[in-house]
Design a protein that fits this description.
alpha/beta, L-arginine/glycine Amidinotransferase, Chain A, 4-stranded mixed sheet, 3-stranded mixed sheet, 10 helices, 26% strand, globular
């Protein structure tokens, strides 16, 4: 599996339509999507899923209004339950010069009942694009895996959390699968020979521990990882333990480089804490889009990430409304490598 910073053919997105994902805030969400697509299409293609021809026209009108580069936009009429393509879409890998789309099983994070349309998304993308596809199997079962639960450096290392993949009692994706099962799956399908197991994800993450809210590779030897110095915050002990584990990691005989990234202040809506995190950034060919939260740490996080990607423009995207859907920029997108 190539690293996210490697050359991309496109970014995949799905136009928002599920009002229940943003109760009371849905009206602003298409505008946020339009802003994201405007920035990406300046320099590379976006492949956009739309429910039907009417939604396609609505999206194109709004995107034209914000001056997105429509020459870099390619629409596919594919119906989805939700829009979180990081988890429901295919994961693209390379086998020599061949590009494969991995069609993992998707079951809505082992939490929500409406997932069957999303589970068909990889199959339908493969059909429309004429791609070669592989359906990962283990113990004669179609493996459940979400893109947000893993992050790779493109050179054989992967980071994930025990909370998401090993918990057998809460949102269990693959009952009976343990550490060795997943490491065998990662080796076979993603070319991974070293799995870094962190403990838990952040508070408010309804995926039960996705790693793309906490720790991300920014080059082959370096991760950024979120930290919370406030001892009264529930995230403090979680992120302290993750940092401790990262400090013990060796990659190719050298210590892992670790860059600490702040957290925004806790963000609530209607009494519910949402998973606001700067780690949910999206790396594109020439830009890095970073969620921001009207917080004093916004500028600090943007500066840190600008130092990690000197050849790319780092752009903040206002995500206070977007995160009410329990995900932001990385969760909603999936990169396709060349």
């Amino acid at each position: 599996m190539p690293a996210e910073w490697e050359r991309q053919a496109a970014i995949w997105l799905a136009w928002p339509h599920q009002r229940r994902d943003w109760p009371g805030k849905f009206a602003t969400i298409p505008l946020v999507y339009a802003e994201i697509i405007r920035h990406i299409t300046r320099t590379q293609p976006v492949k956009l899923l739309v429910r039907d021809a009417r939604m396609r026209e609505q999206a194109l009108q709004l995107l034209a209004d914000v001056n997105a580069n429509l020459d870099n936009l390619h629409c596919h009429e594919i119906t989805t339950n939700r829009v979180w393509l990081r988890d429901s879409g295919p994961i693209f890998v390379r086998r020599g010069r061949r590009k494969l789309a991995l069609d993992w099983k998707f079951n809505a994070w082992a939490k929500y009942p409406d997932w069957r349309l999303d589970n068909r998304v990889p199959e339908r993308i493969v059909d429309r694009e004429g791609l070669e596809s592989v359906q990962p199997q283990h113990r004669q079962r179609h493996v459940v895996l979400e893109g947000g639960s893993i992050d790779v450096n493109g050179a054989g290392a992967l980071v994930t959390t025990e909370e998401c993949l090993l918990d057998q009692s809460v949102q269990c994706r693959n009952p009976g699968f343990g550490r060795e099962d997943y490491e065998e799956i990662f080796a076979r399908y993603l070319g991974v020979d070293q799995t870094i197991w962190l403990s838990h994800g952040i508070v408010g993450d309804d995926t039960h521990g996705h790693v793309d809210d906490i720790t991300r590779f920014v080059d082959r030897q370096t991760v950024v990882t979120v930290v919370e110095p406030n001892r009264r915050d529930d995230n403090h002990p979680i992120l302290k333990e993750n940092l401790k584990r990262l400090r013990r990691v060796q990659l190719d005989g050298s210590p892992l480089n670790i860059i600490e990234l702040p957290m925004p202040r806790p963000l609530y809506f209607e009494g519910t804490r949402v998973p606001a995190s700067y780690a949910n950034f999206l790396i594109c060919n020439k830009v890095v889009l970073v969620p921001t939260f009207n917080d004093s740490n916004d500028r600090l996080a943007l500066g840190i990430l600008a130092g990690c990607f000197p050849g790319r423009e780092v752009i903040g995207i206002h995500a206070v409304d977007l995160v009410w859907g329990f995900g932001t920029l990385h969760c909603m997108s999936q990169q396709e490598p060349f």
